[in-house]
Write a structure and sequence with these properties.
Helices cover about 35% and strands about 20% of the residues. With about 475 residues, the protein is of the alpha+beta class. The protein folds into 5 domains: about 5-90, Uridine Diphospho-n-acetylenolpyruvylglucosamine Reductase, domain 2; about 95-210, Uridine Diphospho-n-acetylenolpyruvylglucosamine Reductase, domain 3; about 215-325, Alpha-Beta Plaits (2-Layer Sandwich), CATH 3.30.70.2190; about 330-405, Alpha-Beta Plaits (2-Layer Sandwich), CATH 3.30.70.2740; about 420-464. A hairpin with a 5-residue loop joins strand 8 and strand 9 (about 175-180). The longest helix has 20 residues, at about 385-405. Bound molecules: flavin-adenine dinucleotide (FAD).
């Protein structure tokens, strides 16, 4: 009998199946370097048909498999925790159709998020969900994680912008989910698939909504001498009935890292925190909202509020914000980017507590996050070669998660559960809740081969 590797080579060609341990090293982790597992092989399919044929081979041989986009995930989602085959989808990167009349685009899953916005910008359109990793991450990875981004405060997450999917199910069948008009007909399997973290199959075609660029955009930078004041300003802006398109916070440790990097944006390094606030819409409403935001920030202790004068200044602020993780990555060998959501009003109480937790474990921490959504990203700088330090990082992360859950928060805002947060699932879900999720998963993947070891804790030798 032919081995499964030989069968994959017969489908894809020798060059597009790698199993040499040295070349596999590049696929041992995603953006979260804490979890490392070597896959048995990596393959590079170029079409849905190749994906489906390869999945059928692996299903027959009972070999686990998973999809990978750009590997920028921050929860260990694209890691082959049980070995098996990674489908690297970078070559499925064609924009198949752009339909301005119906304001949609059809793309392959390996299309890079920012490439889609660039492709439609000249015609006055954009693709709204904009993860800070948008220059690298793929739309397939965004669908799997239901990715967010700074502008999701106003425009909604990936799930609000995906109209239809072509999916290869874990037995190799190709199905269409959604895509038949605005209202879901039959069961909403599209909604179920988005955010399923690659455990229900592999998306091979994605239909997304395109948006018209707003008439006017203004970006403000407000700086504060305390994180609590900045947090109160966040709640006050939203409570005043203003919905900025983005409302982001960066603390001093993050500002210092950014200003020492190529992303330097002229941020004040003596501030305790800055807010980047963007408002967009019709010219007249933007003028009014800018005035109100400036007033509110001043009333909550802002030392200075400046409005970016032109597109170049605005782009510089966003480069600083979106490059913040990269800038933090420069100052230590490893970075643990955490992700949790809390009610926005709890920011002034929770942020100081998070700093106390980091101090108690002797860890260097920086916070840069989607403040308007209450979506926290505590970043812990550490050295993964020091096992004792790694244990402190894990203990601090657990305390942070417990704190967020205690104030009514959720375990993830956008990065997913993946491998990293499985142990926290029982903090929010009962055994019955988890059992219901495991049953849904088993409908899509009865053999448990599709991205196993993610999302749900394993008990009694099976996913929960
Ligand atoms: C610097 C930095 C900033 C970030 N900022 C944000 C942010 O603002 N908002 C945010 O939401 N995230 C952010 N992230 C996290 C990450 O970029 C997102 O989760 C992104 O959606 C992952 O896309 P990817 O192509 O890299 O997916 P990968 O990391 O390759 O995979 C992620 C998951 O998706 C699955 N998957 C990939 N492709 C498919 C497919 N075609 N079908 C089915 N499953 C698939 C994988 O199996 C895996 O479980 C950031 C990451 C970094 C490194």
């Amino acid at each position: 009998m032919m081995s499964w590797i030989a069968e994959l080579k017969a489908i894809l060609g020798d060059e597009d199946v790698i199993a040499d341990p040295e070349r596999l090293l590049a696929y041992e982790c995603d953006g979260l370097s804490l979890h490392k597992h070597l896959p048995s092989a990596v393959i590079f399919p170029e079409s849905a048909e190749e994906v489906a044929r390869a999945v059928k081979v692996l299903a027959r041989h009972r070999v686990p498999f998973l999809a990978r986009g750009a590997g920028t995930g921050l929860s260990g989602g694209a890691v082959a925790v049980q070995g098996g085959v990674i489908f690297e989808l970078a070559r499925m990167n064609r924009i198949l159709a752009i339909d301005y009349e119906n304001q949609l685009a059809v793309v392959e899953p390996g299309v890079i998020n920012l490439a889609l916005t660039r492709a439609v910008a000249e015609a006055g359109y954009f693709y709204a969900p904009d993860p800070s990793s948008q220059m690298a991450c793929t739309l397939g990875g965004n669908v799997a994680e239901n990715a967010g981004g700074p502008h999701c405060l106003k425009y909604g997450m990936t799930g609000h912008h995906v109209l239809g999917l072509e999916v290869v199910l874990p037995d190799g069948t190709i199905v269409m989910l959604g895509g038949h008009g605005a209202d879901a007909v039959g069961y909403d399997l599209l909604g179920l698939f988005i955010g399923s973290e690659g455990t229900f199959g592999i998306a091979t075609k994605i239909t997304v909504r395109l948006m018209r660029q707003p008439q006017a955009v203004k970006t403000l930078l407000a700086d504060f001498l305390s994180v609590e004041d900045a947090s109160r300003a966040v709640s006050a802006i939203i409570a005043a009935g203003i919905l900025p398109s983005a409302l982001e916070m960066m603390d001093r440790a993050t500002i210092e890292a950014v200003e020492a990097s190529v992303y330097a944006a002229g941020l004040p390094t003596d501030a305790a925190a800055v807010l980047i606030i963007e408002v967009d819409g019709l010219e007249a409403s933007v003028v009014y909202e800018v005035e109100r935001v400036v007033e509110i920030c001043r009333a909550h202790g802002a030392r200075q509020v400046v409005v970016a004068r032109d597109e170049a200044e605005r782009a510089r602020l966003w480069a600083g914000r979106k490059g913040a993780f990269g800038a933090l990555g420069r100052i230590s060998p490893d970075l643990m980017v955490q992700d949790a959501v809390i009610p926005r009003s709890k920011l002034p109480e929770v942020l100081p507590e998070i700093y106390r937790i980091a101090a108690r474990y002797g860890l260097r921490m920086a916070n840069v996050f989607h403040a308007g959504d209450g979506n926290l990203h505590p970043n812990i700088c550490f050295d993964g070669r020091d096992p004792e330090e790694v244990e402190r990082v894990k203990a601090a992360c657990r305390e942070i998660m417990e704190l967020c859950v205690r104030v009514g928060g959720a375990l993830t805002g956008e990065h997913g559960i993946g491998l990293d947060k499985i142990a926290y699932m029982p903090l929010v879900f009962t055994e019955d809740d988890l059992e219901a999720m495991a049953r849904v998963r088993a409908v899509f993947d009865p053999e448990g081969l599709c991205n196993p070891g993610k999302v749900l804790p394993v008990r009694r030798c099976r996913a929960f």
